[in-house]
Design a protein that fits this description.
Blueprint: H1 5-8, H2 12-17, H3 21-43, H4 48-52, E1 67-73, E2 80-84, E3 97-103, E4 112-119, E5 125-131, H5 133-136, H6 143-149, H7 163-175, H8 177-190, H9 201-204, E6 211-216, H10 219-233
Helix pairs in contact: 3-7, 3-10, 6-8
Length: about 240
């Protein structure tokens, strides 16, 4: 059954249609690279997770262990990421683990967590979510300040441990910009502050509040809408 791109991802078509030609072309480039990376992985019977974990020892992830162990940080942008998994009893149904993604307004500034990608065991994205400040010991910055930095602030130009994984994550953040914006704004609403105001420091330390906002991700639906809008925009 073919996916109806009009209903695939709420709000995504409107966001695409509002982009300038240059901005839309950047989305197309990101979609092309994302597709090429996944095609290469499929050709080798791999997934983005098997690529990330190819040097990890053991048949299963160690609870709370970062992969890679020393994280991945770009020396110029200051962007970072790592992957880990909680104990099986603490994970949502179907989750293998998740990537935590970080940016900085400048390379030497304190890092801010902007989103996490929940992954299934087949290397598919389940959802994106935001976390409370204490979870990653980040510098909490208002949602709009982070949105204004994205996606340009999330650049990882490192050959190790996997250039492919870094590029894949970069393309994902560029393809789901509206969803990332929504969960960040919802995060701030959960802390009873708007994106333009200082965040509540006391709420940020509340150990009873872990995940503050979450949204499912249908990446195939995203690609379908991009294709549909692109065909109409350029009359293909």
């Amino acid at each position: 059954m073919s996916l109806d791109p009009k209903d695939a991802v709420p709000g995504y078509r409107d966001w695409l249609q509002g982009l300038s030609d240059d901005a839309f072309d950047e989305v197309l480039v990101s979609a092309d690279e994302f597709f090429a990376i996944n095609r290469a992985l499929v050709n080798d019977q791999q997934t983005i997770l098997s690529e990330l974990l190819r040097d990890a020892s053991g048949a299963s992830l160690s609870r709370w262990q970062h992969y890679p162990a020393d994280d991945v940080a770009d020396p110029e942008s200051g962007a970072m990421f790592y992957y880990h998994a909680h104990d099986a009893g603490e994970r949502p149904d179907g989750e293998h683990g998740h990537f935590h993604l970080f940016i900085r307004p400048e390379p030497r500034a304190e890092f801010s967590h902007f989103v996490a990608l929940s992954m299934d065991a087949q290397g598919g994205i389940r959802s994106i979510f935001t976390t409370n400040r204490w979870v990653t010991d980040e510098q909490f910055r208002p949602a709009q300040a982070l949105i204004d930095l994205l996606p340009d602030a999330f650049v990882i130009d490192r050959a190790r441990p996997s250039w492919l994984v870094s590029r894949w994550l970069m393309m994902v953040t560029r393809l789901i910009q509206p969803q990332i914006s929504r969960v960040l704004l919802a995060r701030d609403c959960a802390l009873t502050r708007s994106g333009a105001q200082a965040l509540d420091e006391q709420s940020g330390e509340d150990r009873a509040r872990h995940v503050l906002s979450e949204e499912p991700v249908d990446i195939l639906g995203v690609l379908s809408v991009i294709q549909s809008v692109g065909q109409k925009r350029y009359q293909v």
